[in-house]
Amino acid sequence: MEMVPSEENQFVPKEIQNAAEEPRVLCIIQDITSAKTVNERLTINLPASTTLSKLYGDVAHKAGYVKATFDLAWGNTPDMAPLDHSSEMSLSDSGFEPGGKRNFLQLTDKDGEQPQIASDESGTADSSGLDDSSQERFIGPLPRDGTAGCSGDYSSPSYTYSSILNKSETGYVGLVNQAMTCYLNSLLQTLFMTPEFRKALYNWEFEEVEEDPVTSIPYQLQRLFVLLQTSKKRAIETTDVTRSFGWDSSEAWQQHDVQELCRVMFDALEQKWKQTEQADLINQLYQGKLKDYVRCLECGYESWRIDTYLDIPLVIRPFGASQAYGSVEEALHAFIQPETLDGPNQYFCERCKKKCDARKGLRFLHFPYLLTLQLKRFDFDYTTMHRIKLNDRMAFPEELDMSPFIDVEDENTLTFELFSVMVHSGSAAGGHYYACIKSFSDGQWYSFNDQHVSKITPDDIRKTYGGSSGSRGYYSSAFASSTNAYMLIYRLKDPSRNAKYLAAEDFPEHITSLVQKEKETEEQEKRQREIERNTCKIKLFCTRPVKMMTESKLEVHKDKTLREATEMAFKLMELEGVVSLDCCRLVKYDEFHEYLERSYEGEEDTPMGLLLGGVKSSYMFDLLLEIRKPEQVFQPYKPGEVMVKVHIVDLKSDAIATPVSVRAYLNQTITEFKQLIAQTTGLSAESMRVVLERCYNDLRLLYVPNKTLKAEGFFRSNKVFVESSELTDHQVAFTDSHLWKLLDRHGNTIRLSVLLPEQSPGTLANRTLCQKVGGDSDVPLEGSEGNTKLVEAILEESTEKLKNLSLLQQQQQHGSSTSDSQKSSDGSDFEHIESPSQGADSNSSLCVAADNRELENRIRATAGGSSGASSDPDNHFASEERSDSEVNNDRSTSSVDSDILSSSHSSDTLCNADSGPIQLANGLDSHSITSSRRSKAHEGKKDTWDTAEEDSGTDSEYDDNGKSKAEAQYLYFRAEPCSQDDSSSDAQKCLVVHVDKRITLAAFKQNLEPYVGVASTQFKVFRVYANNQEFESVRLNETLSSFSDDNKITIRLGRALKKGEYRVKVYQLLVNEPEPCKFLVDTVFAKGMTVRRSKEELLPLLKEQCKLDLSLDSVRLRKKTWKNPGTVFLDYHVYEEDISISSNWEVFLEVLNEPEKMKSMSQLAVLSRRWSPATMKLGPFKEVILESSSVEELKEKLSEMSIIPLENLEFAKGRGTFPCDISVLEIHQDLDWNPKVSTLNVWPLYICDDGAVVFYRDSTEEPLVLSDEERSDLMKKESSRLLKTGHRVSYSPRKEKALKIYLDGGPAKDPGQD
């Protein structure tokens, strides 16, 4: 049969076409009526002459729907009308493409109603035990080729596989797989299909007064069997049974051996059935007896004992053999074949009183009524140290004669009839179980594959023998099918004992009551599902009078009226006692666009199913419970209207009012829209300017009178700004107007929460957060007291200059309009913007850099001339060694922040007056920005991004002349102090900062200097994310555009990076420690610095922070790639010239035990380790320095170091990451020893850099011979060791959880556990 791929890349059947055959049409249908079915595909292959009416019938049969309750529409053009239900037109005439081309259709609701599920009698509904909408659409057989159930016929009228039948046709119910409980399902179905076990279980009566039904294993099995026999569902759950086992949900994800489960379950049942009629049931049905004997070959004396068994384990392949047993009979003969005990294994004969040759074996004395044979397909390969599965062929008969295998005379027949084959498909690491079971009522074989039950043939049973068609010798098992029989259950053919299945009319009274109880429960579940199918579930929003918008989910039956739904929403939102029900109504709402679509006037008695368009899994809209005040009247919302939020702008006060909602139509003109706004707001329509904010950073002035709102880009929900004044601002171009500047700043200002560091004495911490530069503020200075007094004198002199300059500039600017750059937005929502220039402190926003430069230089000279760098013992940065250039450029050496002197910062820092444009982060001024803020972004301007800094991965606050780049790039910045804990004077302070997000990080840091108390070079900015993770922001020439409102920033003291500097993490390399990588410190390396210089700066830091007192020549630095040591850095190497360096770089520091031997880049440093097979141990790492990449030189150095003769020395390269850990059980044979190459830099070695790991050994040394017990102990130790080091243990699979059934309802929890 040819297969073609579907949309999901699954293969679907397509009959092979002959030239004479009628062309066929392949239809792939997507069910979009429910969220649970939208990902499913129904595939049907029909003759091209099939009518549309027949297509609907076939889809209904396959999907399990009533025929006339759904529509089919084309999948690629869903807007077209659905296909006609009653049309007799053929598929080829209706536009379907035959010949293997895929025709995509969508199964949709009909008239807003979801499709009706077909009745139980049709065999499609109520088949899962879950919600009907979640039933799996089973299109093909579950088993793959080679598994039971693959009869392969394809002749159903609905063009589906006949091997998969519904419950009404097979008469049997499946079991739902909880996750990995297929092994449990297989055993439960086998027990259910065993008449004697089922009858005995039904005869047992549960006494509820003596035991909890939830924890009673027999009762829950009884309930399960009753449901399997009487339920109309296709599959039922096993959760109640596993709960009675004491299992939690995690057990469902543990796969176990079905034979192990059988034994554990029988033990549990025996314990539960003590002192009942069923106490000996398991033994009566499943227990056999055998004799374990030893016979002396000299005197004939025999010693023996009697053992019982519940199953017989049969070996598939004898130990060490390459051929498997061909049949069960052959394996049984081998099972009872005696072995001779001779040589060292001689048996001590009690009669001969000496060790003699003997014969040891087993004899069957009694076979059980139900004979269980376990085929031992799982084994352990001691060569590879892996668990394996043996897939060899082993045939088994349908009737098995056991008389040749019994040791006693038995007149009764010993013919057993096969009725259950438990099949395993997969490998030793995991797989899938299902059961093939023969019904004793009709002799038909069925495949019980979890929730799917299908008829199969004896040929399908023979496919489970295993093996492959061809012979491959020893490796035949590896190439065989992985689906084969694992457990076989036979029943003795004895008419006097063989029972039939108990019919419903023969049920005991207590089982009849249980059947009735379960039927009522099932009917109740069905009614509940019916209610669920008719319940509309839709998002509900509500703006409470006190709270913000709240969200919930309204679940209302489709027949409930709008009035009843409103009352339900009223109670759901807990509005009783808050507002009256008469003040609430439900309206259609689009939460994403914040758009009120329509209201429902006069439809209070209309059913919700009609208003919402039927019952659907999801809706493209929401509902809003709208609330009015008692004196207000609800405004009608008509379909087709758009909602506009109108913000009134007052240019005189630079205020933007809160929005007023206006509803308009898209076909209205701008003139009509202005008149509508004028009626609502009272503004003049003639002088009105309307600006539409279509999206972020896109302001559009609406000035064409006859243009419609739709043409201007209005949508469902819109935001406009209106201004109606007589100012001359109307006469200038919009992008140069005051209105545009105000809106531009309003749209780009964000609110940030900045957490300041705790201040320490000696810093600028004592500054007030809101300084008055022109006032008599005391500015404590770092350094000596004399310097402090001198600087105070300079500040006093500068104060007079600042006052004079302020008065002069105020006179020059008198009468002119206030610059937008001097305005700030409201602290909460930025709707109201006030000017900080009004008041006595207006001089704080003036630029006086030119006159203050001399003052700043005087202060720097004073501080530097007397004391140089700060000598304050509390200075956080006193331990850093800095060059003279660093000291000159480091503004923290001055006790006065230069920004305060040169730019006169206050709490509202604005450096640009109206006389000049605002300098933006990319070098543009505000006049060059258009209404879209993009079109002229590069027009006539030079981009100021520093490409050298971009390439190097670091940024600097200073240009080549040492001048702050941020000084010319000030945008809007305003800070408001707030304390997290006012009661604690030592608490960290926080700021609420309103800032233009186009500001660079460098400018932002300099604006923060007065609040942090140190220069921007001496603190770092960390962005705090939702999970409280902090990441440092280091690119100073990037803007804050990635930030948004209420983002958090943490400021930490510490020197920030300058141009050409890189932050480096230093780790110590400890090659012979269990954890070879240990973090030490963070430090800074600079471009052009030598390795020796970086070591000189690093060692004092190690001594102070890590208590490591090291000398310069006793350490080396080397490359770190994850955990792997790499290139050794020589002292004369220069960063960025000889060594590439990047942001957040990592290096290893290695302490040397002897003088450095690496002197040249041509040398190669290799880490070697000796392997001793005789002791099964690895030696410590030792470094070998090679002058070349010669294999011969490596072997000579290793021979010299280990005293192994050169001709006996073998080596191999380690695998994986350092330290290349490997189990001592694998190293001797798994590594590629003694590769046939002459140089190290070729395959398979590829040793081209320092740090490679090489193992070596003496080829004449024989490996230690281990017993099985010693090997097992060593395996456990190695597994533990390698797991601790984080390395993969290739021979150890995942740890399995022991299979256990708890008789007391569950495991006892360790009181020490959380």
UniProtKB/TrEMBL annotation:
Q: Does the keyword Hydrolase apply?
A: yes
GO cellular component terms, semicolon-separated? cytosol; nucleus
Q: Which Pfam families does the annotation name?
A: Ubiquitin_2, Ubiquitin_USP47_N, UCH, USP47_C
Q: Where is this region: Disordered?
A: 85-151, 807-845, 862-962
Q: Where is this chain compositionally biased, Low complexity type?
A: 807-827, 862-871, 892-908
MF terms in GO: cysteine-type deubiquitinase activity
Q: Where is the composition biased (Acidic residues)?
A: 946-959
Biased composition of type Polar residues is found at 116-132, 835-845
**Domain called USP: residue spans:** 173-493
Name any Gene Ontology BP term: protein deubiquitination
Q: Which domain of life is it from?
A: Eukaryota
Q: Write out the biased-composition intervals (Basic and acidic residues).
A: 873-889
Q: Which Gene3D superfamilies match?
A: Cysteine proteinases
Q: Which UniProt keywords apply?
A: Hydrolase
**PROSITE patterns according to UniProt:** USP_1, USP_2, USP_3
Q: Does the keyword Hydrolase apply?
A: yes
Q: What is this protein called?
A: Ubiquitin carboxyl-terminal hydrolase 47
What is the organism of origin for this protein?
Answer: Cottoperca gobio (Frogmouth)
